[in-house]
């Protein structure tokens, strides 16, 4: 599969499908957007994202590094310093991720309202079956 035309996310075993699923996982968009401003140390990125455990952030960063979206640079100093930054391919995702971020922020109130309406509808007592005629 050399040409981008030979990849199809609707084919079950296509690598593009796995990549798309990775981009939609819980932490990937936040990591990519978090690194948009340039290199960051692990602790800075974790603080910016909030509520991600060190283990999960490490795993996400390693996966993104393996996929060529994030670059990890180790500086030989005491204490050792490690920076993470987007690669050229990682930067190419910022446009789509920024679009999703803006859409999420602009439509959050509508989504929350829809959830409330759905939940209220779902909490109604189920219709009782008709009583058998005596």
Overview of this protein structure:
This protein is mostly helical and 134 residues long. 53% of the residues lie in helices and 10% in strands. It is built from six helices and three strands; from the N terminus they run ααβααββαα. The chain has helices at residues 15-23, 28-34, 42-49, 54-66, 88-92, 94-122, and strands at 40-41, 70-75, 81-86. A three-stranded antiparallel beta sheet has the order 1-3-2. It is extended and about 75 Å long. The model has no long low-confidence stretch (mean pLDDT 91).
Keywords summarizing the entry:
6 helices, 3 strands, mainly alpha, about 10% strand, about 130 residues, 3-stranded antiparallel sheet
Quick structural gist:
The protein is mainly alpha-helical and 134 residues long.
């Amino acid at each position: 599969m050399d040409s981008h035309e030979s990849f199809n996310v609707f084919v079950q075993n296509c690598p593009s499908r796995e990549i798309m699923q990775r981009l939609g996982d819980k932490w990937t968009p936040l990591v990519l957007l978090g690194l948009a401003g340039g290199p960051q140390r692990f602790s800075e990125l974790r603080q910016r994202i909030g509520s991600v455990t060190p283990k999960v952030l490490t795993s996400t960063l390693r996966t993104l590094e393996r996929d060529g979206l994030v670059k990890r640079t180790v500086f030989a100093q005491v204490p050792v310093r490690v920076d993470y930054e987007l690669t050229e391919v990682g930067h190419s995702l910022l446009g789509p991720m920024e679009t999703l971020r803006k859409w999420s922020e602009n439509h959050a109130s509508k989504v929350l309202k829809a959830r409330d309406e759905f939940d209220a509808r779902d909490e109604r007592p189920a219709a009782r079956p008709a009583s058998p005629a005596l």
